């Protein structure tokens, strides 16, 4: 099992009212208690935290350059993760150099990883434009930023699973890989319930609060 926290968990992109310093400090401490394998804090979030006097934690990732990470307990379960940098502003089209850089990263990771995942802060429109590209594209695109949430779409002619977080939170996306993608088969396609299952888990009252997180919330008196 791999647990990934995507961009804009701490502050929505260009929100009219940024989170208060108290809430940001609570979120940072709460994420220290969670057992995430990787936390992607986008540059915008880091800037919001810095202005609020809250320091991103050591081990969080994300910057203004493309990053590559290898996760997984062993070679048989190795997963390559690409963290995409924010798009330059103003950008009406995806920068060709960045698209090529992503394609090169996918090729590099496929040499050693069973699955290649890209995490994006580009928003719905930027990610949709990326998926029209010839690729090679990642096996999974975990999107965030402006635009609608997606429980899971099979995109790019069946080659890429596209999942987007929901801006109001209160849910988690679960992805079950039932069979690894065959990168050597040009006819490979993702198929629901055959080699993948995508589920949105709503964090309703049926789930009990974590005692440590609840205690932290009460101690900080967060809003």
Summarize the model shown.
With 223 residues, the chain is an alpha/beta fold. It is built from 5 helices and 10 strands, in the order E-H-E-H-E-E-H-E-H-E-E-E-E-E-H.
Number of spatially distinct domains: 1
Helix content: 25-40%
> How would you state the average pLDDT, rounded?
91
The CATH homologous superfamily: Metallo-dependent phosphatases
* Cα-atom radius of gyration: 18 Å
Tally the beta strands.
Answer: 10
Q: Which stretches of 5+ consecutive residues score pLDDT under 50?
A: none
- Main sheet specs: 6 strands, mixed
CATH class category name: Alpha Beta
- CATH T-level fold name: Purple Acid Phosphatase, chain A, domain 2
User: Strand portion, in percent?
Assistant: 15-25%
* SSE order, one letter for each helix or strand: EHEHEEHEHEEEEEH
Tag the structure with descriptive keywords.
Purple Acid Phosphatase, chain A, domain 2, 223 residues, alpha/beta, 5 helices, 6-stranded mixed β-sheet, two-stranded parallel sheet, globular
Give a structural overview:
The chain has 223 residues and is of the alpha/beta class. It has a single domain, classed as Metallo-dependent phosphatases (Purple Acid Phosphatase, chain A, domain 2, 4-Layer Sandwich), CATH 3.60.21.10. The strands form three sheets. It has a six-stranded mixed sheet, with helices on one face. It has a two-stranded parallel ribbon with strand order 1-2. A hairpin with a 7-residue loop joins strand 3 and strand 4. Helix 1 packs antiparallel against helix 5. The radius of gyration is 18 Å and the shape is globular.
